[in-house]
Amino acid sequence: MSDPHPITITVNGQARSAIVEPRKTLADVLREDLRLTGTHLACEHGVCGACTVLLDGSAVRSCLVFGVQADGAEVTTVEGLAPAPGELSDVQAAFRDCHGLQCGFCTPGFVVSIHAFLDANPAPTDEEIRSGLSGNLCRCTGYAGIVNAVRQVVRERAGGPPTEGVPTVAGHAVTTLPSAP
Amino acid sequence: MTATQAAPGSGVGRFLGQSVKRREDARLVTGHGRYLEDVLWPDAWHVAFLRSPVARGRISTLDVKAARALPGVRAVLTGADLDPLVKSWWQTAMGKDSPQPPRRLLAADDVRYAGEPIAMVLAESRYLAEDALELIDLDIETQPAIVSDHRGRWGAAKDGELVHPEYGSNVASTLPYPGMPDSNPALEEVLASAPHVVEETFHQHRYICVPMETRGIQARWDPARDLLEIVSSTQNVHEVRSTVSRLLGLSDVQVHARAEDVGGAFGLKCFVDSEELAVAAAAYSQQCAVAWIEDRNENLVAGGHSRTEDLTVSLATDADGKILGIKGHHVEDVGAFPTYGVGGNAGLAMMMLPGPYDVGQYFYSAEAVFSNTCGMTPYRGPFLMETVAREQLIDITAARLGIDPVEFRRRNMIRPDQLPFTTPTGLVLETITPIETLDQATEMIGYADFRKEQAAARAEGRILGIGIASYIEGSPAFGAAGAEQVTVRMDMAGQALVFMGSGSHGQSVETTMAQVVAEELGIDIDDVRIVQGDTISSPYGTGTAGSRTATTFGGAARIAGQKLKEKILQVAAVALEASPDDLEITDGVVSVKGTPGAAIGMEQIAAMAYAGHTMLPADMEPGLEAKHRIRNPPLMFSNACHAAIVEIDRDTGAVEIKRYVVSEDCGNMINPMVVEGQITGGVVQGIGGVFYEHFVYDGDGNPLTTTFLDYLLPTAADVPDIEIGHVITPSNTPGGFKPMGEGGAICSPPALINAVRDALAPFGGLPNVQPLTPEVVLDVIDGVPAV
User: Fold this and answer.
1) Domain coordinates of chain B in residue numbers?
2) What secondary structure, in 3-state letters, does B317-360 show?
3) CATH number for A121
4) Residues A95 and A66 both lie in one domain
5) Is the separation of the CB atoms in A66 and A24 below 8 Å?
6) Pfam families this protein is in (chain B) (predicted)?
7) How far is A82 from chain B (nearest CA, A)?
8) Average pLDDT, stretch B717-724?
9) Domain B479-629, what architecture?
10) Cross-chain residue pair A81–B30, CB shorter than 8 Å
11) Among B21, B28, B29, which would you mutate to test the A interface (most chain A Cβ atoms within 10 Å of its Cβ)?
């Protein structure tokens, strides 16, 4: 029963195979067997959300799913969200614009969760945004930059004007120089 | 809503003072960060620790034979295997001879807190290592634990059984230090004669760092190279190297420590604790690679604890509310094995208790006690008890005197005309702005109007309150911590590598320090890269901690940049046949002022400085490299005022934070976006501490909050938008920067508690307890006496 099983998972559009023990979590399979280390583990008991991935389109905690359960499924990790190498998804760009991360350890889980959240609710209220984010823990930012990042994506996807400058956590009006990265 | 009051010359330039987006982010938002667990060596043996299930007792059986026999297990190490390797164990900042509890890598004879490591398994995977733990036969004869309960703990730790028999006392340390006066007779006279003396004891519960990335380390001893190689999740790689080399009797050149991306720390990763040292010792003795990634349960139970203290403060005033004197007595629980020395923060709390006020006579005493609990570790604003207690007592005193708490503060704050102001503890405050930040915060939150709104709300049966708190953030930069070095090296192609002994773990150092250097050199920020966190390439340093990065590394970067700029201009002057004084750098091009045609690019200057050195004057050293090791004051200061409005649900006791305002003065801001991020993150840690987070032991020393289901962190749904105002008064250190990373966490607890206290005033007032759970709040509303 504990013999390793061969599994195949379509990860970020690519069929990937591994031979894994039944007890090995999807998170560990992704990180160790498939070398996709963007999915982070910060509690391993399903509370913090850092390990969130999309499993057949739904956001799940990959620390609470066994790798063998994902056999045959499609998984999207934080590495698979950007449209092309060197580019950022709109959520990822908004995190950078709004200072939605400091140490960055929780960020992959937030980014994946927010993609799923906004797919389900493209026009959330502020209260819905905060509630939608409450399944992920961040210890650095105080969430302000993350909430602002979601607000920015909602605004942009609704056809709002492109974001100019850097909307900081307090909405502090500042100018970004053209030469800044 | 944000206001900014800037003094002239507040340091805004092409990059300085700009909210430059972070260069860390592209890799971190796409999952391409490299944290320790992402870069584990393929040949590393994975560690799981067997930990004590009880707080205190004698180990009667420890049989690891079956575990050693499990296939895939390389070794099961006990104290008998590892502790004989220990040559010397101390922390650089504390010094070799500083008192500390007896240290051991693994408990062999007895255990002294629940979670103490007893044995370590090295196996092919963490899964297998944990399988092996289950095969270890462990029996412990339990002894009564020296653990305090929530209220009356301090007596228990003084009598009877000892946490550390070798230490001879459960009292870990006391203040005043030997040789200092043990009283202040002038203060006693004031307390005996003042019209008003208010004394209260404030309690702060145990809450802890919990970075999202836990602790971790991998180490490999390679005898053929004569090198112990370490990668650690740390704030301070040089401390990792020093502690490990001392421990094993190696020299500093036999140990190479570095860090990759570090997923938060908040003080937890300043020092090197027993598990990390056990990994290094195991790698050394087994001559192999060993890796340990702490899991969350280990992190909560054994990852270092903080707060857990009482402060009794007596405050004397005249009839008009002018403070005449303050006396404090501080009692701290430092657990069994504090990560540094004997733990405790009273020395700095003593210096900072007067805060931004002119307090007259002053005296402070303190006692730190051991207990059979997890040892104390620094946590953001480690000595914040001084602000937590003082700001509450000011509100209580003002209420008793019938003076508005804002007016009471304004009457007692250090005025601009008193600067530089020498405090009773000898600190010289030169550029603080307590009254300006109080004014800005109260204006932003609409203090005057709120009182009317509150009265109307109370008439409707709603429970609203406002809380104010002010503080001075003292950033200790004692010893080597005040003397950080930055080296700027421009190679042949004309871009700058910047080497520093910092250890960024979320502070945006790769961005902010590049801003400083690019500004000085006049080159693009994309042409500057920061190199840190590596004992081979970084200048000796003390890492990132204590809010010092802007002031020490930033100041040094500014001067190193100026020195390199001078050299660049000297070389360019040769090429352009001009005087260096007539040259300027614009966007990476050096030109003669007023003669745009006479110009030379940075790449040509660099080529000349290295390859064309024969063209340089004989007394000019070739190359483009400059360094500066700064000499900063041992304590640097910023200040702020926080204001919070809360509304309490009278049925559930839930507290909603309706507004939260911060007015701060951290001098010249390198990057306002980063400054505001630090403030907001700190404030939310305070929100967690006051309302949610509480590490709980039962009366036998068993930890009860061992998962994130029990140890509750605030979520996005629990926090408001934080509104921030800036008063900008440059410091007198290079760049005019001030320390600010911890202040959000220091001042938010009293601001929030004061708001709840104000809200509950009609119900008879709030007991001096933390955390402010719904039960505590409901008991006040329902008139249930505090336990």
Assistant:
1) 1-8+402-476+634-787, 479-629
2) ECCCCCEEEEEEEEEEEEECCCCCCCCCCHHHHHHHCCCCECCC
3) 1.10.150.120
4) no
5) yes
6) Ald_Xan_dh_C (PF01315), MoCoBD_1 (PF02738), MoCoBD_2 (PF20256)
7) 7
8) 96
9) 2-Layer Sandwich (3.30)
10) yes
11) B29
